[in-house]
Amino acid sequence: MGNKKEIFASDTVYISDKTNQEEVFNEVYQDLLKKDLVTADFIVNLIERELNYPTGLDMTPVDATLPNIAIPHTESEFVKTTRIIPVKLNHKIKFHNMISPDEELSVSFLFMILNEDGEAQAGLLADIMDFINATDRKKMLEFFTYEDPNQIYQFLVENFKGE
């Protein structure tokens, strides 16, 4: 695993105005594809995987004031890099809960995982949770209100520990 600076890139931080999963996924996918970070099949697999294995995370157990997040991802064969893609949602979007899939959550932020190396998936997921748990609550709440991709990127580079 490279250093944490490489797990985020300033040109793959997104702010989305879309109002449903598929639209957000498509918007991000178009750009990732253009940048040659994913394969053409990425989008189909991302959507299908999200249906079968939801990635919404209820943040209430961590802190009731934090917005819910989702961690969409797909198999390694559809990506060409290892990176976490932050996506701030201007409109809450429904995701099913990773822990109890029947439950719907309103999600405000995505940490999309691109993972070339299938082994590291769980590690990246754990790193995201560690980052949320370890970062000062006030700072974390502020982070979720950022409207500027560069601000989001800077915060992650400074606060995300990872491997």
Ordered list of secondary-structure elements with their pairings:
Layout lengths: L13 E3 L4 H14 L7 H11 L3 E2 L10 E3 L12 E14 L7 E11 L6 H14 L2 H7 L5 H11 L4
Parallel strand pairs: 1-4, 3-5
Antiparallel strand pairs: 2-3, 4-5
In round numbers, the mean pLDDT is 93
Structural class: alpha/beta
Number of strands: 5
What level of helicity do the residues show? 25-40%
Question: What's the shape?
Answer: globular
Number of helices: 5
Concise description?
35% of the residues lie in helices and 20% in strands.
What do these coordinates show?
The chain has 163 residues and is of the alpha/beta class. The chain contains 5 helices and 5 strands, in the order βααββββααα. The protein has helices at 21-34, 42-52, 121-134, 137-143, 149-159, and strands at 14-16, 56-57, 68-70, 83-96, 104-114. A 5-stranded mixed sheet has the order 1-4-5-3-2, sandwiched between helices. A hairpin with a 7-residue loop joins strand 4 (83-96) and strand 5. Helix 1 packs antiparallel against helix 2 (42-52). The longest helix has 14 residues, at 21-34. The chain is globular and about 40 Å long. The model is unreliable at 1-5 (pLDDT under 50).
Which descriptors apply to this entry?
single chain; 163 residues; alpha/beta; five-stranded mixed sheet; 5 helices; 20% strand
